[in-house]
């Protein structure tokens, strides 16, 4: 169980922090809420106490014998501030210590994550951008806000990301605190990353299709991790029923043919291409334009043809010699072929720079928030296997991106 300090600043998005608190608690963490005086105008102290199951600290002078402005920061495994207003970012960047929350930020030695929320004009103001840059230079993680509906009729960047998104970031950093260093440093800034996710569908008729059980969660985690580390991300999603991570350029598609076209466009100017989608390997030779009806007790015979090999096509059409291409492969080991053997053979067949392999036998991985992966690199990089690594898909996504960064430095 980790100890999380949830700071809440005085913005209308404070109500979203209630759901974020629920998600942090549901994952088994001890959460102490520290609202600013302004935050309590939006959500009362009783709400925070009831949801957290812990006393709510609001003032430096409260329980002074416990020295809360020092102890809370020293004892926390993560400080997460959501929402972080423009005022709070300014006070944190200048080292102010005029309330309990800003005192805690000065004493914390754990990762500190800010989730800004404010009107678009405030977020884009040079003063706010300077404060964000200052906080990142000092090692804090500042999550870019989402775009969407704000207070009143306004819309644009400045919206607090969904609680599920913020919880995923928090869980990833708690599992591997070094992620906060890479996120603060934004080591992918200036790079363009193309990611595919989900399972394609090949229609038999208007209501039936050939597909697979891919949920798209791994691709979502990769896109989320790349944005957090500063990359410009284009996500090609095949039949994924998840809200998109903020800060990405999303392209929704259906079939393997659609995937091939969309990824060809996305990869054209990408520095890193990650094919995490699960394309259907076969399609009907002919699809019926009307629903196929049963005919007595007769079965149904289908003629299937192979679909486009999207990953191999991306490797074949690569024009930038510095571009790194990483593929994914879901395999089921047998008595005659181990996971390592299957991975090495597919890597050679596809020709990509690295291949991420996971074992999906027995229904593992698909739809789960966790996985176990091994990464095989091509002979161009000396070959070899990295891993196996097990953990949440958010944590493993950073492992894959680390491999991509390493391969770029060795090209």
TrEMBL record:
Note on cofactor: Binds 1 FMN per subunit.
Region (Phosphopantothenoylcysteine decarboxylase): 1-192
Catalytic activity: (R)-4'-phosphopantothenate + L-cysteine + CTP = N-[(R)-4-phosphopantothenoyl]-L-cysteine + CMP + diphosphate + H(+); N-[(R)-4-phosphopantothenoyl]-L-cysteine + H(+) = (R)-4'-phosphopantetheine + CO2
Assigned EC number: 4.1.1.36, 6.3.2.5
Gene3D superfamilies for the chain: CoaB-like (3.40.50.10300), Flavin prenyltransferase-like (3.40.50.1950)
Keyword Nucleotide-binding included in the entry's annotation: no
Secretion signal span: none
Domain (Flavoprotein): residue spans on this chain: 3-166
Top-level taxon of the source organism: Bacteria
DNA/pantothenate metabolism flavoprotein C-terminal domain boundaries: 188-404
Pathway(s) the chain acts in: Cofactor biosynthesis; coenzyme A biosynthesis; CoA from (R)-pantothenate: step 2/5; Cofactor biosynthesis; coenzyme A biosynthesis; CoA from (R)-pantothenate: step 3/5
Residues reported in the UniProt entry to bind CTP: 281, 291, 328, 346, 350
Annotated Pfam families: DFP, Flavoprotein
Keywords noted in UniProt: Decarboxylase, Flavoprotein, FMN, Ligase, Lyase, Magnesium, Metal-binding, Multifunctional enzyme
GO annotation terms (biological process): coenzyme A biosynthetic process; pantothenate catabolic process
Entry GO CC: phosphopantothenoylcysteine decarboxylase complex
InterPro entries registered for this protein in UniProt: CoaB-like_sf (IPR035929), CoaBC (IPR005252), DNA/pantothenate-metab_flavo_C (IPR007085), Flavin_trans-like (IPR036551), Flavoprotein (IPR003382)
Annotated stretches, region: Phosphopantothenate--cysteine ligase: 193-411
Cofactor annotation: FMN; Mg(2+)
Keyword Flavoprotein: yes
Record-level Gene Ontology MF annotations: FMN binding; metal ion binding; phosphopantothenate--cysteine ligase activity; phosphopantothenoylcysteine decarboxylase activity
Family: In the C-terminal section; belongs to the PPC synthetase family. In the N-terminal section; belongs to the HFCD (homo-oligomeric flavin containing Cys decarboxylase) superfamily.
Function: Catalyzes two sequential steps in the biosynthesis of coenzyme A. In the first step cysteine is conjugated to 4'-phosphopantothenate to form 4-phosphopantothenoylcysteine. In the second step the latter compound is decarboxylated to form 4'-phosphopantotheine.
Protein name as annotated: Coenzyme A biosynthesis bifunctional protein CoaBC
Species name: Microlunatus parietis
